[in-house]
Design brief:
Number of domains: 1
CATH topology: Peptide Deformylase
Number of helices: 3
Structural class: alpha+beta
Largest sheet: 5 strands, antiparallel
Shape: globular
Number of strands: 9
Strand order of the largest sheet: 1-2-5-8-9
Order of helices and strands: HEEEEEEEEEHH
Bound molecules: nickel (II) ion
CATH architecture: Alpha-Beta Complex
Length: 196
C-alpha cells in the first residue's frame, strides 16, 4: 500500500483553498506523468489531506489548492469532536484517508441524491443526483494501479472530487436557474470579501 495513507499521521502544511470563480476550478486538470511519482507528490498529498481535515471537509481536489493536476483526497469516515463544548478546538480520530491519482471510472450505476457542499463554494448546499455505485481505477502515490468499489457517501464524494478534475463544480449539476443564482451569489460574496 501507499506510504501516505498507510499508518497515516495527521501532520502537514495547511494549503490555501481557492474559491469560485477562480479559473483553476473551471479548467480541466492534467494527468500526473510517470516521472512525477516522487517524494514531492507524496508531500503534496499529505498536505492536501491535512488541509482537508482542518477545513474540515470529506474531500479535496488539487484544483482547489490551485494546482491543475488529476489528484484528489477523500475521507468519509473520520470523527471530529469538540475538545470541550464551546472551546472551538477539535479532536480528530479514526482517519481513513484515500488518495486518488489519475482516476478513471470503470463502472457507474444506479441513482442517489444527496445534499452536497464544497470548500470552494462556501455557504452553498444543494441536492445533487449522482451514481449510487461506482468502480474506479486510479494510481496510488507509488504509481501503482489500484481499483476501488464504492457506494453511498464514498461514491458521491469520489464523483464530486473527480468533477473538480474536469473543471466542473457541483452547482454545474443543478438546473440552469439554480446554477446562475448561486454563481451570482458566490461572485458577489467574493467581491464583498475582497473589499472588507
Ligand atoms: Ni468540491
Amino acid at each position: 500500500m501507499e506510504q501516505v495513507v498507510e499508518n497515516y499521521k495527521y501532520e502537514g502544511k495547511e494549503l490555501e483553498i481557492v474559491t469560485y470563480p477562480d479559473p483553476v476550478l473551471t479548467t480541466v486538470a492534467e494527468e500526473v506523468k510517470p516521472e512525477e511519482f516522487n517524494d514531492e507528490l507524496k508531500e503534496l498529498c499529505k498536505n492536501m489531506l491535512y488541509t482537508m481535515y482542518n477545513a474540515p471537509g470529506i474531500g479535496l481536489a488539487a484544483p482547489q489548492i490551485g494546482l491543475s493536476k488529476r489528484i484528489f483526497v477523500v475521507d468519509v469516515d473520520y470523527d471530529r469532536e469538540e475538545t470541550s463544548e464551546g472551546s472551538g478546538e477539535y479532536t480528530l480520530s479514526n482517519f481513513n484517508p484515500k488518495v486518488f491519482i489519475n482516476p478513471k471510472f470503470k463502472l457507474k450505476e444506479g441513482d442517489i441524491t444527496y445534499q452536497e457542499g464544497c470548500l470552494s463554494l462556501p455557504g452553498v448546499y444543494e441536492d445533487v443526483k449522482r451514481y449510487e455505485h461506482i468502480v474506479v481505477e486510479y494510481q496510488n502515490t507509488n504509481g501503482e494501479v489500484q481499483e476501488i468499489e464504492a457506494n453511498e457517501l464514498l461514491s458521491i464524494c469520489i464523483q464530486h472530487e473527480n468533477d473538480h478534475l474536469d473543471g466542473i463544480v457541483f452547482i454545474d449539476r443543478l438546473s440552469n436557474l439554480k446554477k446562475n443564482f448561486f454563481k451570482k451569489k458566490l461572485i458577489k460574496q467574493k467581491k464583498l470579501q475582497a473589499t472588507t
